[in-house]
């Protein structure tokens, strides 16, 4: 009888619903994973369906601050892109309706990248409200790279690029 009681308690604990914060963490991670998978397959309906209507995508170039329609116009003619998640961290606002994340990504062309952003809870589930893709610079390379960027920007101002 005691064995049956222990088994019953174990099964009840295993079948108990997840705590809201753990369920939300899983849902946010699934949304981000689906976002990357959709981009890799050029499944633009799914990809842009995971973004809020007022979403902003910040690309790696300083000029790339795209609202959703502009980013769609850029992405739809492409065959997609593949970023594989190496590591991700997700945090939530106290009200549970906003999540933010940072993730390290691997890409065949660019190597290590970083994605950061914000998701909001909607009636349709968690939606990406902002995504920012960056190339993290090793500190030992930062001075040389930033000097190159400054020189490039000066040439652009002078009309040489």
UniProtKB/TrEMBL annotation:
Domain SnoaL-like: 28-137
Keyword Signal belongs to the record: yes
Signal peptide: 1-19
Key words of the record: Signal
Source organism superkingdom: Bacteria
Entry keyword Protein biosynthesis: no
Name by which UniProt lists this protein: Nuclear transport factor 2 family protein
Organism: Kordiimonas lipolytica
